[in-house]
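Board notes, transcribed. Complex of a protein with copper (I) ion.
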Amino acid sequence: MNVPHGAPRSGLDPAEVAHRLATDGPNELPRPPRRTARRILLEIAREPMFQLLGLAVFIYLLLGDHAEAGMLLAFLLIIIAITLIQEWRTERVLETLRDMTSPRALVWRDGQQQRIAGRDLVQGDLIELAEGDRVPADAQLLEVNDLSVDESLLSGESLSIAKAPAAQVYAGTMVVAGRAIAQVTATGARSEIGRIGTVLGALEVERTPLQLQTRQLVRWFSWLGLAVSLAVGLLFVWTRGDWLGGTLAGITMAMSLLPQEFLLILTVFMAMGAWRLSQRRVLTRRASAIETLGAATVLCTDKTGTLTRNQMAIEALVRFTPNGPLKWSRGDRLDEASQALLRCGTLASEQEPFDPMERAFHALASTCIEPVPASWHLAHEYSLSPDLPAMTHVWRADGRSSHVVAAKGAPESIARLCRLSEEHQRQVLAEAGNLADQGMRVLGIATADFQGTDWPADQHGFDFRLLGLVALADPIRDNIPRAIEECRRAGIRVVMVTGDHPGTARAIARQAGLDAEAGLMLGKDVAASSDEALRRSVAATTLFARVTPHQKLRIVQALKANGEVVAMTGDGVNDAPSLKAAHIGIAMGGRGTDVAREASSLVLLDDDFEALVQSIRLGRRIYDNLRKAMRFVFAVHVPIAGLALIPLLTGWTLLLFPMHIAFLEIIIDPVCSIVFEAEEEERDVMNRPPRDSAAPLFSAGMIAQSLVQGALVLLMVGLFYWGLLQNGEPEPVARAAAFIALVSANTALALANRSSSPSLKAALRMGNHAMGGMILITAILLATVIGVAPLRQLFGFEIPGLPTIIVAAGIGAIGLSLLLAYKAVMSRIGLFPTASRHESP
Ligand SMILES: Nc1ncnc2c1ncn2[C@@H]1O[C@H](COP(=O)(O)OP(=O)(O)OP(=O)(O)O)[C@@H](O)[C@H]1O
Ligand SMILES: [Cu+]
């Protein structure tokens, strides 16, 4: 049982690594099989839009209209192409995310310890394993320190198994406790798990609430469309006695009503959202997190490393003498007794520490005390536990008859281990409280002697003597007060949940700008509260200190029971249950263990609280934009369906054929709606309360508003068409002019829905370049179908005179002003909901 220390390990050199990587390939398991092109095609064939188009092609063939059939066939191919590209891009995004979330490995290479992606490991690599890691490859243990591993992934049994040196550990299993150094024996498909063929770490692609809502809506509208189309088809047959024509009219109607863009929009917005988050160094592990982010009402954050920099330095040492406490501060000369205190703290730390606290001990020790003699060896150790946050190292010192025992931990725990008199304990804890109140993290240090090797069962078995206290500074990150202030304005309550001393918690909270006076609750009070009482407490408490992971879980559950949408950060193995329980579990990419990362839905690669606030901001923007796009799609269907329907009812010559609808529905509308994704955030995005998470994406109020907008456009274009016909314009001219008017009015609909503000400036501002591009593309496409002779004939168009074209295009401009005026009136009387406030029904 020897802990890794002494000479630095060298590990493989880069040339060797490159060679092995080239011959063995990356340390990756075979990917789950991609969906085959055939399966994707089958899925596309199930889409109603595809079937309707197919049916129309068939009827045109029956009618002998080969050109029309060919044109619609082209649209079918476009649908297939778009779906395949979409599929391929989503797959690629998922794959990159999968790479980034795969376990990492801590290896020695070329004499240096470094953290690399698990896939870059090769056979022969020297790796270190620690609590919370997923073992990245099969490996043989060289040095072991209380290691136990959960092999349930391989054996199915969820038991932790203690491992001794020379034992084998397997890729994919989980280190539940301890540390070890191991040498990689097999990577990738040659590992045990690779041979079994288990698929690991597959990203969850469950259906999110929004997807379910949207699917529901699409289904609903499809039925409605079907019913209306049947009625229209029958009406056509009844009035005009033409079966094939009636079927075509029915198909046209159905296509115009199909809201198939909704699902496309949702998929694209969420995939783009994950990409935008990754640009801010935030990884999305569960798609639902992006939806939920914007609705978060409470943000539970830990302290160390999230609010603070996690760069510790020892600021003060305190010893207790019969004449009272004696304090050493940074910069003073270190007397002998203080040196003993520091040395003991160093002995109680790992020899190659990761914990910044322990690094601070080593850092200070290396400047002013003798190093631990190389002949000393760590004989036994006791780790931190939630019940007793203290750790003890037992050293075998050459030339001494007894072992040297060194302990460090929370001052209360160390006081308990030392069995201090009540008087003495009060004095020590008061001093610890003083230091904590300055925002410092305080540890107690104790020592003992021990004869023999019959180790006591726990740390209480030693005869500890208190040496003193150590205070470490860990300043808060510079950007924290601003980020906290942003949350406050956005109506998000920030709650600090820490394992640290209440004094430290309060001091850091004050510096961060949290409401430090609003009441602090200790972990033990959480434990003593009933669920009912805890629910009441969490509603009014911003600080929780000396909290264990289990109590953290209860806090999350109590907040959830109060109806809050909870985001929660965490990093340790024990945090996994609370991360899972929270609506949005957030793990730290740097500090976080693999276990925590796997339990969470977001990973902050830079461990930075501000990135979290930025993600919330982005989440709100994505949701806003999603709604704007949906609003637009609702609205745009009204004129299309209306113009397909009215001529049938009134007996005018038909304005829209299947190919017009296909052109509008398959090309123009998706182009128009996708650009909402890039829309800038609303000015008040972080100055308004979180949206009501229970409110549906599509409220009746929002749908009604959109339908009115659409009706306005329908009225204008309809009147225009009627006027042209009344004026005696030939039918193809009237159709072309009406089509120009329709497309231009649709663009107006898109512009009018860009912002929640009814001002023209907001509708036309150029921040979103995609919007400008959209207008340009629309214009070019429109010019193509009207300007290119064969297309023009197919679409039943004839080029109208210039004045008519100008009036038609002007319909868009008039439409935009009408739509904005309508919005202004509605918002004046408080009926036009801003993008994401609660909707009035
Ligand atoms: N390496 C260590 N050695 C000795 N004591 C430790 C060590 N790490 C933590 N402790 C003690 O355990 C307490 C709880 O630690 P824990 O990691 O749960 O929370 P924390 O790091 O203090 O705060 P946060 O939850 O904000 O990250 C610490 O305040 C400290 O007293
Ligand atoms: Cu549609």
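The longest helix spans residues 609-650. The pocket of adenosine-5'-triphosphate (ligand 1) is lined by residues 302-304, 355, 357-358, 384, 389-391, 408-410, 443, 498-500 (CB under 6 Å).
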